[in-house]
């Protein structure tokens, strides 16, 4: 079973930056989708950014120009660089992955592997 562990969350002032990391273990997928999701209290979970095994990325409209997703192939580590943070970015952020079994966009995949989450709090 794939295991994902997030880190890097914390508290930051509006306009600040954070970099989230997600380390995967027992990761044997050769082709895959990975992504970051977030959920704020009382809100539905939403996709933030995604990347596939070829390095192609997509980001949600709400974070375009501010967030970027990347990965380290050697260590199977996923990153989310968050700049110009806003209070509305406050949420629990989750790392997720799934084997790539077809060529649908990673943003529409049903992810099967999930981390425990890391809290991001942005104050005004």
Describe it.
With 124 residues, the chain is mainly β. Helix content is 0%, strand content 52%. The protein is built from no helices and 11 strands. The protein has strands at residues 3-7, 10-13, 18-25, 32-39, 46-52, 57-59, 67-72, 77-82, 91-99, 113-114, 118-123. The strands form 2 sheets. Strands 2, 4, 5, 6, 9, 10 and 11 form a 7-stranded mixed sheet that branches. Strand 5 (46-52) and strand 6 (57-59) form a beta hairpin.
List the helices and strands and how they pair.
Layout: E1 3-7, E2 10-13, E3 18-25, E4 32-39, E5 46-52, E6 57-59, E7 67-72, E8 77-82, E9 91-99, E10 113-114, E11 118-123
Parallel strand pairs: 2-11
Antiparallel strand pairs: 1-3, 3-8, 4-5, 4-9, 5-6, 7-8, 9-10, 9-11
Give a quick precis of the structure.
By secondary structure, the protein is an all-beta fold. Helix content is 0%, strand content 52%.
Please give the radius of gyration in angstroms. Answer: 14 Å
| N-to-C order of helices and strands | EEEEEEEEEEE
Low-pLDDT parts are none
Overall number of strands: 11
Number of helices: 0
Largest sheet: 7 strands, mixed
Taken as a percent bin, the fraction of beta residues is over 45%
Distance between the termini: 40 Å
From the spread of the alpha carbons, the general shape counts as globular
Helix content: under 10%
Structural class: mainly beta
Please tell me the overall pLDDT.
95
Assembly of the depicted chains: single chain
